[in-house]
Structures
1.
Amino acid sequence: MELHLIRHPRPDVAPGICYGQTDVGLAECPATVADRLRPLLPESFALHASPLSRARLLAEALGKPRLDDRLKEIHFGDWEGRSFDDIGAAIDDWAADPLGFRAPGGESPREMAARVLAWLAEQGNRGQTPISSEIGVCPLFRHPEHLVVVAHGGPLRAIAGHLLGMPPERWLGLDFGCGQVTRIDVESWGVVLKWFNR
């Protein structure tokens, strides 16, 4: 099975603004991005997306997506819409605990990853006998269709990092480019990163 992970097009937001689940606009046309990506995708696929408009609009330009709140970006709570300069020294607390830190009123990267991986396990179990979704066991190899996911940097890092067997502390190193696609092939014998950020 081919899994294609697409980050939404470039958002229309000033540099240095924390936007997480804030529903910001787009700085590039989703139809143009879809036309550019379509030749890289399989002929037929199941399409899933975050309901935030920056992901949803691209997904709708590619087909008829199944929207799922679990694919939303991390929720930064009181930090949403603020500049990182205004947030100040609290950023140091996040740097000290990059997976466990939670902005006031938000969620931690670990909590975000848990909801995303619950979605991933559900896809692996769709129409099949339930199989384990523990680390090291790929839940997708029995999926009957190729999958295309249009979402955000945080959720895509969790999906790719988990499938590739990377420790969660290393997931932040997976830098998904806006409007680009990454392909991971999932087989019964293992997982292969075919290409990244095309």
2.
Amino acid sequence: MASNLQIYFIQITGIISLFFLHSCKPAINDNDSDSIEPEKSTKESPADTMGIVKPTLGNSGNKNYSALTTSKESAEKIKTFLHQKYLKDFDVLKPADRKFSFFQTDFNNDGKDDYFIHLYGSYFCNAEGCTYLLLDNDLNEIAVFNNLYSPIYRSDKTTNGWNDIILFSPDILKDEHQYINIVYKNGKYSYNSKEAEKLYATPSQNCIVMWDNEVSAKEFSF
């Protein structure tokens, strides 16, 4: 009698085990069995202290570079310029500080590309933004912009033969107007946020946008 109860108990236990084994097995869609979706990254997009999302830097795996950012010849020219400009700072520059990206486009309508350069790392960037340089095709320094947020726009409008530059207002938290318009005068771009024209609308679609979040700028080292 006891042996029969033991056999009955073992049979019941086996049935229960099989039930749980099958009920806990994850369902597999045959259509997806060969293409399991990778886990999505939870890494947040980098943002500055004002909540403006900064553009993603280019990397070797990103094919979505703007054609205005990839010229090796232009990168070598800029690299030489940066070496000379920051030679005395090399002792304190970390590898992360010696990186740059650029957009090349004509700012003065002479048929030659000029270079708008974005410098990175803690040496050139802080909570208020980063340092940007504008060089003409002969590597003459046209402007140095400190503490800027991107994106930056080359306007379709010109002043004194040079395209205006549209920037985020540094007073964006206090100012309902998000952008300011910088113009070329007296041989340079005058960056005075208090005197700059405030724009009442977003930049025109005819503007060239630089360092936005749709297209990456290829990164180089100097």
3.
Amino acid sequence: MGPVAALLLVRNYLGCCLLPLWLCWAFPAAAAVDATDHDAFWLWSGVRTQPVLAQAKVLYILQGQVSRSRRHPGRGVELIAQGLPVSRLSQDQVWVVYRAHTLAWPETIYSQLLGQVQRWQDSGTQVVGVQIDFDSSTGELERYGHFLSDLRQRLPSRYRLSITGLMDWSSNGDPQAISQLKGVVDEVVVQTYQGRYSIPNYASYLPRLDRMGLPYKVGLIQGGDWQEPQALRDSPWFRGYVVFLQNP
């Protein structure tokens, strides 16, 4: 082997060795979401209390599910109570959350919801608002916007309105339908997970979230994969994280 060939061999060898190192530096591997790194959490029905809740400043507590009655079809839509009983919580901010499977709410549902929120407020808990957890498809965003506008008018002005959102809203949603949420919702918490696991291609959606023109938080699943892109921290719309707690 001549000196030139030897030099090329060494250079190629070093390049092969250094390339993985460069890739690790440029694109760091995702790490598991550690709840102790955060102070805002969803607390869902059936999830056991964890020590990390002692550091919580913000809690989103599930209080009910709005759906069509399966056990009693004649009753139409009903609110099924879930989650913690009304009690005094010490957190700085508490959001009362309702999981919706339908937007066809009768007046009784609104009355139950507002009554429940008031009971939490009367307990001494710092209730800052209501969150609606509804998996609206992009094609249903306009209808969802009308529903939220109506709900906003029903809520006392001291309460804020939060919603969960799907990552593809910013990519495939009708801009006009999304724009009607401005002035109606105070935040969108975008879910980067499905079930118990992070969505594998979440990173491809995150750069587009600013297109919504709405304040947003990013929802993470405890123990899921996550690598924060710098663009997220640089966004003027990004408001932090909410971790969905789950049992081991």
